């Protein structure tokens, strides 16, 4: 049996692999795979999540390539499958915070024979289940939220995205009431600025990624949603899954407790 050689084309998955003790078998990452920084300096980069350097990736001879349906292109996956000796492609698509439990279990199923992985996974699963149990919407007043990920044009998230599911965990429901499907541009609707429902928004959350919103944008967004409270939020904590879900759920409770920021 050939030694395991993992390529991760997804930042959240790269972080999870390191958290589970698989750094030594990680042979490739994207330029956006930046956490934990100190552990990844020597791991070769193979482009971005959507513009993978396939020649470099193939040269690193991975046995497994981890991808995400929402973050990587189908063309990339098809090209890898066409190699003379293709690696196993591991497709992930967590849609809710609870899906992280199955994601961790899948990594154990694939790589649990590596030293320490099962033990680390058990500890992470326990921590995640505790945060899930603590982060429930039942005792909270429902809120209408606009979560902005881009400017010029304004872009938000559909209700069937991981981000929207995270926010729903504290009873914060994203507007518009749109579902974008499993993948594609419809998952991230454009906001024109003249939608009637903008006056109903109670909170606007300005993400730190992929657009780096800052204090200079607050007044502009308040004009967009005149009846809403506006705050800057850590996009990594709300959109990265895997190991990041544990502090992410804690961060959600902080937001709910202090919605004004």
Which terms would index this structure?
Rossmann fold, alpha/beta, 2 domains, globular, about 15% strand, single chain, 4-stranded parallel beta sheet, 10 helices
Would you kindly provide a written description of the structure presented here, covering whatever features stand out?
With 261 residues, the chain is α/β, with parallel strands linked by helices. It has 2 domains: 6-133, 3-Layer(aba) Sandwich (Rossmann fold); 143-257, Nitrogenase molybdenum iron protein domain (Rossmann fold, 3-Layer(aba) Sandwich), CATH 3.40.50. It is 34% helix and 15% strand. The chain has helices at 11-19, 37-40, 54-59, 74-81, 99-111, 117-134, 162-168, 218-224, 235-239, 245-257, and strands spanning 6-8, 26-28, 64-68, 88-92, 143-148, 154-155, 172-174, 190-191, 203-207, 229-233. It has a 4-stranded parallel beta sheet, sandwiched between helices. Strands 7-5-9-10 form a 4-stranded parallel beta sheet, sandwiched between helices. It has a two-stranded antiparallel sheet with strand order 6-8. α5 (99-111) runs antiparallel to α6 (117-134). The longest helix has 18 residues, at 117-134. The N and C termini lie far apart (53 Å).
What composes the largest sheet?
Answer: 4 strands, parallel
Q: Fraction of residues in helices?
A: 25-40%
Order of helices and strands: EHEHHEHEHHEEHEEEHEHH
The fold-level CATH name of the largest domain is Rossmann fold
Which CATH top level class of the largest domain fits?
Answer: Alpha Beta
Radius of gyration using CA atoms only? 19 Å
The portion of residues forming beta strands comes to: 5-15%
Q: In order across it, which strands form the biggest sheet? A: 2-1-3-4
Structural class by sheet pairing and helices: alpha/beta
Domain unit count: 2
What is the residue-averaged pLDDT? 96
How many helices does DSSP assign? 10
- Runs in which pLDDT lies below 50 for 5 or more consecutive residues are none
**What CATH architecture of the largest domain would you give?**
3-Layer(aba) Sandwich
- In total, the number of strands is 10
CATH superfamily of the largest domain: Nitrogenase molybdenum iron protein domain
| N-to-C CA distance | 53 Å
Globular, elongated, flat, extended or rod-shaped: what is the shape?
Answer: globular
